[in-house]
C-alpha cells in the first residue's frame, strides 16, 4: 500500500511545507480497539461496511502521518459517558508531550466538575477540544456545560464539534442546538466537523452569521460520503467565500479509503484556485494554531 507519494505530491505541487490535519484520532488502546470493533460491526451509526484503512500500531500511525508530510495533527478524544473525559484528557496531554507535532487535545462531558477539568486542560496547553454530540448523546446546551463553554469562549480555544446528523441522526444533532449555543456564547470558536454533514447548507448559513465558526472537510466530498450524503451542488459556490474558514480534516486512521483520496476530493471540487487549496490544506490551520 503505497499511499505516501500521492499525498506528498499534492502539497508539494501547491508549494506548501506540508499539511495541517485538524481531525485525526489517537486514543488509549482499549478505547481505540472498541471504536474499531464498532466500525467492524457496521453498527447503527455507520450502517455499512467500513474497513479501517490505517489500522496499525500507534507509533506506526504517527510515522505514517509524518511520512505523508502532515506537520500538525490532533488526538481527538471524546467521552460518551460520565467520569471518562478527565482520564482521556490526561492521556491526550501525555501523548502530545511525547508527540510534539500532535496538537494537544482534550474533551468534556456534561457532568459535575467538567468546567474544572476543562480549565485544567487549557492551562496545561490544550490547543483544541472535541465534542461529539452524536456519540455522547448530550445536549450542547445542557446547564452542566455552561461554564465549560464560558471557559472555552474566554480562552478562544477551538472546539471540533460533531453536531451534524450524519451518518445517523441523534436526539441533539442538527443545526438548531448549535444556533442556540451560539446565541448564548457568540465568541465560541467552533469547527463544525464533516462540514455539518448532511445539513451542509444550514451550517454554511451558521458560518455566514457567526464569524468565529469554521468547518472541517472530514470525509466530505469523497466518493464514500457522496453516495450517502451528497453535498448540494447549488451550494458549492459558497465554499469559495469561506476560503479562510475551512480546515482540512481526514478522520485518520478510521477512513475506508486512502488519505490521498480525501485530499483529491477537494481538488476535484473545482470551486477554488490553488490559493483556496493552500488555505485549506495548510494556511488556515497554521494560522489558527499559531504554527510557523
- Give the distance, in angstroms, between the N- and C-terminal Cα atoms: 32 Å
Taken from the alpha-carbon principal axes, the silhouette is: globular
Query: What portion of residues belong to β-strands?
Result: 5-15%
Largest sheet: 6 strands, parallel
**Mean pLDDT figure:** 96
What is the count of DSSP helices, taking H or I runs of 4+ residues? 13
Number of β-strand runs:
9
Order of strands across the main sheet:
4-5-6-7-8-9
Helix content: 40-55%
Element string (H = helix, E = strand): HEHHEHEEHEHHEHEHEHHEHH
State the low-pLDDT regions, or none. none
Q: What value does the Rg take, in angstroms?
A: 18 Å
Give the class from helix and strand content and strand pairing. alpha/beta
What does this structure look like?
With 292 residues, this protein is an alpha/beta fold. The protein has 13 helices and nine strands. It has helices at residues 4-13, 29-40, 58-68, 85-98, 114-123, 133-136, 146-155, 175-184, 200-209, 223-226, 238-241, 259-269, 274-288, and strands at 19-20, 70-74, 102-103, 105-107, 128-132, 159-162, 190-192, 214-216, 246-247. The chain has a six-stranded parallel beta sheet. Strand 2, helix 4 (85-98) and strand 3 form a beta-alpha-beta unit. The protein is globular and about 50 Å long. The two termini are 32 Å apart. Keywords: Lyase. This is Amidohydrolase family protein. It comes from [Mycobacterium] burgundiense. Residues 20-291 form the Amidohydrolase-related domain.
Amino acid at each position: 500500500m503505497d499511499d505516501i507519494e500521492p499525498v506528498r505530491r499534492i502539497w508539494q505541487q501547491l508549494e506548501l511545507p506540508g499539511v495541517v490535519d485538524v481531525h485525526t484520532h489517537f486514543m488509549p488502546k482499549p478505547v481505540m480497539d472498541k471504536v474499531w470493533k464498532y466500525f467492524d460491526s457496521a453498527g447503527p451509526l455507520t450502517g455499512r461496511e467500513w474497513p479501517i484503512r490505517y489500522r496499525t500500531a500507534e507509533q506506526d500511525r504517527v510515522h505514517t502521518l509524518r511520512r505523508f508530510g502532515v506537520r500538525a495533527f490532533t488526538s481527538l478524544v471524546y467521552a460518551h459517558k460520565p467520569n471518562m473525559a478527565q482520564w482521556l484528557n490526561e492521556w491526550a496531554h501525555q501523548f502530545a508531550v511525547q508527540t510534539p507535532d500532535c496538537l494537544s487535545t482534550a474533551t468534556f462531558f456534561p457532568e459535575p466538575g467538567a468546567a474544572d477539568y476543562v480549565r485544567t486542560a487549557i492551562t496545561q496547553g490544550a490547543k483544541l477540544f472535541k465534542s461529539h454530540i452524536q456519540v455522547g448523546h448530550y445536549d450542547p446546551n445542557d446547564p452542566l456545560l455552561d461554564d465549560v463553554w464560558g471557559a472555552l469562549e474566554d480562552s478562544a480555544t477551538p472546539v471540533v464539534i460533531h453536531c451534524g446528523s450524519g451518518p445517523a441522526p441523534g436526539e441533539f444533532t442538527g443545526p438548531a442546538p448549535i444556533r442556540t449555543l451560539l446565541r448564548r456564547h457568540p465568541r465560541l470558536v467552533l469547527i463544525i466537523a464533516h462540514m455539518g454533514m448532511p445539513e451542509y447548507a444550514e451550517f454554511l448559513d451558521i458560518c455566514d452569521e457567526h464569524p468565529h465558526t469554521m468547518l472541517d472537510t472530514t470525509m466530505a466530498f469523497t466518493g464514500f460520503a457522496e453516495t450517502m450524503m451528497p453535498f448540494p451542488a447549488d451550494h458549492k459556490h459558497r465554499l469559495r467565500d469561506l476560503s479562510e474558514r475551512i480546515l482540512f480534516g481526514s478522520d485518520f486512521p478510521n477512513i475506508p479509503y486512502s488519505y490521498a483520496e480525501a485530499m483529491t476530493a477537494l481538488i476535484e471540487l473545482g470551486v477554488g484556485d490553488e490559493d483556496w487549496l493552500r488555505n485549506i490544506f495548510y494556511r488556515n490551520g497554521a494560522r489558527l494554531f499559531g504554527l510557523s
